[in-house]
Design goal:
Length: 88
């Protein structure tokens, strides 16, 4: 089976957004290879620790929110997008 690890990384990062606490920490109950890839991409701090949660970087917080919206927010709940070239 050929697994799309990029898609897995996106969904896991989006789910980390769902579990945020203390502003930038989330429970790290996902597989180690995925958590290591997210760390290598700069989205989370080093997941190897005794802590049950992991810190998201500023870039990770932004990307996690974007991906959460992409995958889990219904289109009807999104604000309207202004046409190109027109102010919002």
């Amino acid at each position: 089976m050929n697994i799309d690890t990029e898609a897995i990384d996106e969904v896991v990062l989006a789910l980390l957004h769902l579990n945020l606490c203390e502003r930038n920490r989330a429970w790290k109950g996902f597989d180690w290879p995925t958590m290591n890839r997210l760390h290598e991409k700069g989205f989370i701090h080093d997941p190897v620790s005794r802590a049950r949660s992991v810190g998201l970087t500023n870039e990770g917080l932004r990307e996690a929110e974007r991906l959460f919206t992409k995958y889990f927010v219904r289109a009807a709940d999104l604000p309207p997008v202004p046409p190109e070239g027109k102010p919002a």
